[in-house]
Amino acid sequence: MPAAPDAVAALKGRWAGLTDRPSLDHPAVNVPATELLGVLRSLKEEHGFDMLADVTAVDWAEGSRPRFTVVYHVFSTVGHEYVRIACACPDGAAPEVPSAVGLWPGANWHEREVFDMFGIRFAGHPDLRRILMWDGYPHFPLRKDFPLAGIETELPDPEVVAETKAGAIAAPMMGGPFVAKAGGINMAETEPRAKDESWSERRPKPGA
Amino acid sequence: MVASATELAYDSKIEGEVIVSRADAVINWIRSNSMWPMPMGLACCAIELMAVAASRFDIARFGAEVMRFSPKQADVMIVAGTVTYKMSTAVRRIYDQMLAPKWVIAMGACASTGGMYRSYAVMQGVDRILPVDVYVSGCPPRPEALLDALVKLQGKVAREPSASKLLSA
Amino acid sequence: MPADYAFPDSETKSARGEFEAQRMSISMGPSHPSTHGVLRLQMELDGEVVRKAEPVIGYLHRGDEKIAENMTYNQFVPYTDRLDYLAPLANNMAYAIAVEKLAKLEVPPRCQAIRVITAEMARISAHLLGLGAFGIDVGAWTVFLYSFTEREKLYRLFEELTGARFTTSYTRIGGVARDVPEGWTGRVDAFCEQFLPRLEETLSLLTRNKIFVDRTAGIGVISKEDAIAFGLTGPNLRGSGVPLDLRKDRPYSGYEQYDFDVPVGTRGDGYDRYLVRGEEMRQSVRIIRQAIAKFPGGSWQAEEAKRIVKPSKDRVLTSMEELIQNFMIVTEGPQMPAGEVYFEAENPKGALGFYIVSKGGGVPWRLKIRAPSFCNLSILPKVCVGAMVADIVSILGSLDFVMGECDR
Fold it and tell me: Is A83 found in the same domain as A24?
């Protein structure tokens, strides 16, 4: 009983801004941020997709348009199908989309995590603050311009810092991580390269 | 008489039911054979720590089955699992609340050096904030490895000049 | 516990102006015996009753998703072990199937059967520990020891198969790491044989135990609507009466050929969730036995997937083409086509989902791990209100979450 493709077809008929999103498994649509809540509400109330499985975001790297895409996966507990909704953030510098907390209370924590990791704000979220990193952390870790090793910051508790003189340092990568690039089946590019994100802590990067 | 500071000397001069020994040896013997762990069980190593406390590997043989989560009642903090920067303040505070004498066992690769998590959120070894006595390698270490670490710690405790430390304020 | 519960004498005393009720702010965790890992619960108490509970997570956030962007697909398998570290083989399987969906790769039936057997053994292992931890939190030490004894037998079987007691890293993209050893399935069968009576013995310590029933029945009630609204999955959702089990509703890895029941609770309280987990263990044994009875021959990896699965070692060491193939797969990773997939597997804790965005090549562009414990914990602010502090421990134990996957 293919309910999901029917639902997607109905949505595309009703809202003009929706486009098909290429997907390897579940039906997926691109939704502009202005129509996002209407589409999600329609999926939930009219087409029976009652569970919000996941809210996440993808950073397409600096220079792409759009830079961030927020991706929702909704699931129907009756029809056992998924639909993927992708919403591109209109502004790459100060990304913001409407919050789905009104539809699913479970979206609360997912959106906080997206904010924590990417810096995408959710308009209408009751309590948008960091959830996985500590509250005063200044960076957004999953952005592509943030290195895996991290950037040196202070530990959250000043007493502990005073006692131990420890800080959140950049992890010693020894020139790594050594990995091939994502994408690019070009033979010259697929060899693993040293991404050179942070040198060893005792030895600074030569030439830096 | 006793040959070295570590020997309790069961075969020494015995007068009636009294064994004569050195203060160091007795104090260290008491301390090492009843080390109450403070299980700082953070991640997967905590499961192996629980397995050590369970029937097959039985840390009770070494007097250490009394897992006291209250720092005031514990002797050795077993940091079992990945220490993230967010968690590090809690670990340090709990260590500070423990009463002397106290020791630390860094169990597993994550606690020793950050393990396979070389990332922005993981503290590369708990020895950046705590003085560690024994490092146990493994991901997770086998329960036998943790017991070996405990035995090594007992050996380390046995070599400490405890009496002079106690009596000198 | 009604939300406006008033203690005896409090009305007369406060009417006489004898005391002012003031809420106490208390922080439970992150280092606490009953928080099952590093969870911090900031609570506001009115006497003994919780008026507000705010979980603080992230104390075990290790940066898995960022690490995944810098690892090939096979290199990431050990990190999946440490997500739900009570059932690593189930996580391995969920990840492998998710990546295989990118290439639309079907693994041979023997590999599917091995994955199902190991995942169900992992389910038994995880539920046993959940049971043991729950028992120990409400005061039953013996349950912990009994369940750990059984888990040690499972660990021995895992170690024989994969080399590690529990961080197994057993699956690879396109198959599993190695075939089952000689006689292993017979030993698993023997384990199942002796496990069922031991399970009944362990469960009998709790199921009709008045203290346990008093501590869990009616505590932590989650309604059906709440469960779906907060995205709960797994035994927590089934305990609230929603018969959703991805193994039956969206079968993967050959689950459709096995005959098993899905236990569903009625009242959504801690006791129902406990019963659901107990019954799931019995059903897992049923599945394992059927899988062993039908255990197919053949290969344990998809040999035809040239750029994904490594060729066998004897050909690698003797033939040039296989040598190059092996080198490419190891250094650059299994070459996956571009695209996006989202796959959820029925893990012991709930539905573990992997959303993978691939731009081609051996390294993912974005890997999101949808953790069941993350969603299960999000209901805590709602479910803890009105409960007494001692009930919080019981609620946490009955939700059976794991911080490794919650924080990733």
Answer: yes
pTM for this predicted structure? 0.90
Half-sphere exposure of C199 (CA within 13 A, CB side): 23
Q: Is residue A19 part of a domain?
A: yes
Contact B47, B140 (CB under 8 A): yes
Q: Distance between CA C346 and CA C364 in Å, rounded?
A: 23
Residue of B118, B119, B127 to mutate, testing the A interface (most A Cβ within 10 Å of its Cβ): B118
Nearest chain A alpha carbon to B124: A171
Task: Establish if A208 belongs to a structural domain.
Answer: no
Angle at B26 between CA B21 and CA B29, to 5 degrees: 135
Q: Around Cβ B104, how many Cβ atoms within 10 Å?
A: 24
How many domains is chain A built from? 2
Tell me the two tokens of residue C24: 């106490």
Tell me the pLDDT band of C31, cut-offs 50, 70 and 90: confident
ipTM of the complex: 0.90
Q: CA A7 to CA A82: how far, in whole Å?
A: 11
Residue C211 has pLDDT above 70, yes or no: yes
Are C238 and C346 spatial neighbours (Cβ–Cβ below 8 Å)? no
Domain ranges of chain B: 1-32, 35-158
The set of chains that have 3 or more CB pairs under 8 A with B is A, C
Q: Is the distance from CB of C228 to CB of C217 less than 8 angstroms? A: no
CB C348 within 8 A of CB C93: no
Asked if the C-beta of A166 comes within 8 angstroms of chain B's C-beta atoms, the answer is yes
Q: Which residue in C62, C65, C66 has the most chain A C-beta atoms within 10 A of its own C-beta, making it the best mutation to test that interface? A: C66
Which residues constitute the domain of residue A101?
Answer: 3-123
Separation of alpha carbons A122 and A135, rounded Å: 17
CB atoms within 10 A of CB A13: 9
Q: What percent of chain B has pLDDT over 70?
A: 90
Sign of CA dihedral B88, B90, B96, B98: negative
pLDDT for A91 beyond 70? yes
State the Cα–Cα distance between residues C257 and C238, nearest whole angstrom: 22
Q: How far is B85 from chain A (nearest CA, A)?
A: 6
Q: Which residues pair with C64 in a beta bridge?
A: none
Which has more confidence, A200 or C203?
A: C203
pLDDT at C352 over 60: yes
pLDDT of residue A37 exceeding 60, the answer is yes
Residues C307-319, mean pLDDT to the nearest whole number: 85
Q: Which chains lie within 8 Å of chain C at 3 or more CB pairs, if any?
A: A, B
pLDDT given for residue A1 in this prediction: 43
Exposed, middle or buried by CB within 10 Å (0-12, 13-18, 19+), for A10? middle
In the DSSP assignment, the letter for residue A26 is S
Mean pLDDT within B78-90: 91
C97-133: pLDDT as tens digits: 999 988 888 889 999 999 999 999 999 999 999 999 8
The one-letter amino acid code at A89 reads C
Contacts of residue A132 in chain B, CB cutoff 8 Å? 121
